[in-house]
Amino acid sequence: MKKLGNVVLVLVIILLIAAIGVGGWYFVKKDKESSERIAKLENQIAGLSDKKDEEVTDKNKDNNETGTTKSDKTAKANEAIKKALNKKSFKR
Question: How would residue 19 be classed by pLDDT, with cut points 50, 70 and 90?
Answer without folding.
Answer: very high
